[in-house]
Specification:
Length: about 120
């Protein structure tokens, strides 16, 4: 278990230092432009289920597609490793904040509120 936590910490820190920055203002306006993100599944190590992480300079933004565009993310995941694999995939996305929150399943059967987005497109970086 200690090795899993150490690996998770190392991968998280690596991600914080290798991602390009995006501002919250840029993200809320984004529909036509690509933003760098990290598609993440940490549920197997007591983190949260599939979501998008974006480096916002001062914080790590966590986003989840709304119900209408969730299939865009699921289809991408199925083509790139499967729904149950713990992984990080560096991606580019076209998405726009909806201004709503959505609950995401996390470890120990808890739920986290994440900002909801309309996810238009996703591709590997």
């Amino acid at each position: 278990m200690t090795h899993k936590i150490s690996l998770l910490l190392i991968l998280t820190l690596f991600g914080l230092f290798t991602c390009d920055y995006t501002s919250e203002q840029e993200l809320s306006a984004t529909t036509e432009e690509w933003s760098n993100a990290r598609l993440t599944n940490q549920l197997p190590v007591d983190g949260c289920d599939w979501h998008l992480g974006v480096d916002l300079k001062d914080e790590w933004g966590q986003y989840v597609p709304n119900d209408q565009t969730n299939s865009v993310m699921k289809n991408f995941i199925e083509k790139n490793g499967g729904l149950n694999a713990p992984m990080f995939i560096d991606v580019q996305v076209k998405m726009k904040l909806t201004g709503k929150k959505k609950k995401v399943l996390c470890g120990w059967n808890t739920k986290a509120d994440m900002d909801e987005v309309e996810l238009y497109e996703i591709r590997r970086r």
